[in-house]
């Protein structure tokens, strides 16, 4: 390991290994195949680059993105490390030349696109080269259960068994659920004990979910208030990317854009402008960002809710790679769910639709959860965190918690009495005592007369309460022609009175007249908040605070 540290200093200019790096390098050097799960920006590349320098022979790196390969190879050559890549941008002759260099032992690292492994001639040529290590970057692409399955990644199994003596395998990823980890280990024959997970928590990221904002206005204001900062705005569709880009350009912002509808050349150009800080804002679809190493991204704004947690955390995680405080803001609207549903159903592989819809639901739950957002993400990736993060919008909203067990029981009971085969709108309508034709047709007119939640709540309140119960796991969603809800095992415990349900007090939007004494107070407060450097995403006052405010003079605030 002493030599490994010298390599780190000599070639990369760093004094110490980061968390997990030394362990992975140690295992790899002793020939143990490993799985490395480390957050984006955690420093996965060095985990195979240093062993590659120290091991006899050629290390092969499988990497899904051409641009990524080129950047890495360039960076390695700058650090005096002989490296090359083989992908579709090379001519047949260039491929031959590269292979000759590899066979003659002139290369330490060779980056290969997975598609290349489908060529038997290529594998044949490779089998004559001594290969001690195969690094599989973005290893979640090999798993059907991952969010970004690439069939070509399956050919890696063939590669691994190409030589009489199996090379050491190092699989690396930033986003893998326990199921995906298990799948990767099985496919690449990695021992469970050889898994190194450094933890998903990113303690410099402040996560926010904002529901019901005017998105355009929010983005404009945010950029005005943070006018010096670099950031990425993600949207789900090319059309939305174009629209946001146009809006920001009209507002005089230095902005770049990136989506699959632009030519390869233009995409590269726009990416360069962003990487070189010529454009401070990148507006993009999820096509942008894999492997991008830009350290000073201070915010990642999501204009639409992404289709799953893996994508969200990977995209949001592009903020704050330098470890400085950064914001990840998700602007949620219920229409986002339809947008993503549509995109999922458009995808070619029909067999994957149910699984993708289930993942989408987890994302919707995340947007409606009232607990710590960081912990919700960690729980998704199978990590237990006791303490709330104290930075996210849920940790900082200052709302009191109340017991809503009784109301929850009313909703759950209603779902049961309706036979657990209807959508949430229908249930909500019955709960507020609505008597439309559909309710009568299905024979719920009588149930609806009880109007279990009638009077206290509007239809919208009840719908959002149902969303909350889904997010809490008390109700579950079944995806069919249209989504229906049913009571989960945990929900049954609530029905039986074995479990309490706590919810944060609702946010009430109250209009305040200009002659109300509160008006002046809030005006002063708002000014104070806006003067601060970092504007919190929103401010919520409890009734108690509002009453206390009334008792004070503006000068006392
Ligand atoms: P990942 O692939 O995990 O997203 P990278 O390998 O691209 O991350 O590394 C992210 C950044 O961290 C790079 O700029 C890299 O040079 C830097 N880095 C890696 N290891 C160390 C280290 N031990 N000390 C300081 N910086 C490091
Ligand atoms: Mg990487």
UniProtKB/TrEMBL annotation:
Entry's Gene Ontology molecular function annotations: 3'-5' DNA helicase activity; ATP binding; DNA binding; four-way junction helicase activity; hydrolase activity; metal ion binding
Domain Helicase C-terminal: start-end pairs: 218-365
EC number(s) stated in the UniProt entry for this protein: 5.6.2.4
Single GO cellular component term: bacterial nucleoid
Broadest EC class assigned to this enzyme: isomerase
InterPro entries, sorted: DEAD/DEAH_box_helicase_dom (IPR011545), DNA_helicase_ATP-dep_RecQ (IPR004589), DNA_helicase_ATP-dep_RecQ_bac (IPR006293), Helicase_ATP-bd (IPR014001), Helicase_C-like (IPR001650), HRDC-like_sf (IPR010997), HRDC_dom (IPR002121), HRDC_dom_sf (IPR044876)
Reactions listed under catalytic activity: Couples ATP hydrolysis with the unwinding of duplex DNA by translocating in the 3'-5' direction
Cofactor(s) required, per the database record: Mg(2+); Zn(2+)
UniProt keyword list: ATP-binding, DNA damage, DNA recombination, DNA repair, DNA-binding, Helicase, Hydrolase, Isomerase, Metal-binding, Nucleotide-binding, Zinc
Domain Helicase ATP-binding, residue spans: 25-194
GO biological process: DNA recombination; DNA repair; DNA replication; SOS response
Highest taxon of the lineage: Bacteria
Family indicated by similarity: Belongs to the helicase family. RecQ subfamily.
Name of the protein: DNA helicase RecQ
Upper taxonomic lineage: Bacteria, Bacillati, Bacillota, Bacilli, Bacillales
């Amino acid at each position: 390991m002493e030599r490994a540290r010298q390599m780190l200093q000599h070639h990369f200019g760093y004094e110490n290994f980061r968390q997990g790096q030394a362990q992975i390098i140690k295992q790899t050097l002793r020939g143990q195949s490993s799985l490395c799960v480390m957050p984006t920006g955690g420093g996965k590349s060095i985990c195979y680059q240093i062993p590659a320098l120290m091991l006899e022979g050629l290390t092969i790196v499988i990497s899904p993105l051409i641009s990524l390969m080129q950047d890495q190879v360039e960076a390695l050559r700058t650090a005096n490390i002989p490296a090359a890549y083989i992908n579709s941008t090379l001519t047949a002759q260039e491929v031959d030349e590269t292979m000759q260099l590899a066979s003659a032992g002139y290369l330490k690292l060779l980056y290969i696109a997975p598609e290349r492994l489908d060529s038997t001639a290529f594998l044949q040529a490779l089998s004559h080269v001594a290969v001690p290590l195969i690094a599989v970057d973005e290893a979640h692409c090999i798993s059907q259960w991952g969010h970004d399955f690439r069939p070509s990644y399956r050919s890696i199994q063939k590669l691994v068994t190409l030589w009489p003596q199996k090379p050491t395998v190092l699989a690396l990823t930033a986003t893998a659920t326990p199921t995906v980890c298990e799948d990767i280990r099985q496919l690449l024959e990695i021992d469970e004990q050889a898994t190194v997970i450094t933890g998903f928590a990113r303690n410099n990221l402040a996560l926010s979910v904002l529901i019901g904002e005017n998105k355009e206005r929010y983005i404009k204001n945010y950029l005005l208030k943070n006018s010096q900062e670099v950031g990425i705005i993600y949207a789900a569709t090319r059309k939305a990317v174009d629209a946001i880009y146009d809006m920001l350009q009209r507002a005089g912002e230095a902005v770049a854009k990136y989506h699959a509808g632009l030519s390869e050349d233009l995409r590269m150009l726009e990416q360069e402008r962003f990487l070189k800080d010529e454009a401070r804002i990148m507006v993009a679809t999820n096509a942008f960002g894999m492997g991008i190493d830009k350290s000073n991204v201070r915010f990642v704004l999501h204009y639409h809710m992404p289709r799953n947690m893996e994508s969200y955390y990977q995209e949001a995680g592009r903020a704050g790679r330098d470890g400085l405080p950064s914001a990840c803001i998700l602007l949620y609207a219920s229409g986002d769910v339809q947008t993503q549903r549509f995109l999922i159903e458009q995808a070619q592989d029909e067999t994957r639709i149910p699984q993708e819809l289930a993942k989408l639901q987890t994302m919707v739950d995340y947007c409606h959860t009232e607990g710590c957002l960081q912990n919700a993400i960690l729980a998704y990736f199978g990590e237990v965190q006791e303490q709330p993060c104290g930075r996210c919008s849920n940790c900082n909203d200052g709302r009191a918690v109340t017991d809503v067990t009784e109301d929850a029981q009313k909703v759950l009971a209603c779902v049961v009495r309706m036979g657990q085969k209807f959508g949430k709108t229908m249930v909500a309508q019955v709960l507020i005592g609505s008597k439309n034709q559909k309710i009568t047709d299905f024979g719920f007119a009588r149930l609806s007369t009880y109007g279990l939640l009638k009077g206290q709540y509007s239809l919208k309140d009840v719908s959002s309460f149902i969303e909350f119960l889904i997010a809490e796991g008390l109700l579950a969603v079944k995806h069919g022609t249209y989504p229906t809800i049913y009571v989960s095992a945990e929900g049954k415990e609530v029905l039986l009175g074995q479990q309490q349900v706590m919810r944060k007090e609702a946010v009430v939007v109250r209009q305040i007249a200009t002659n109300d004494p509160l008006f002046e107070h809030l005006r002063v407060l708002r000014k104070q908040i806006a003067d601060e450097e970092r504007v919190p995403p929103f401010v919520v006052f409890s009734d108690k605070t509002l009453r206390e405010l009334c008792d004070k003079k503006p000068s006392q605030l």
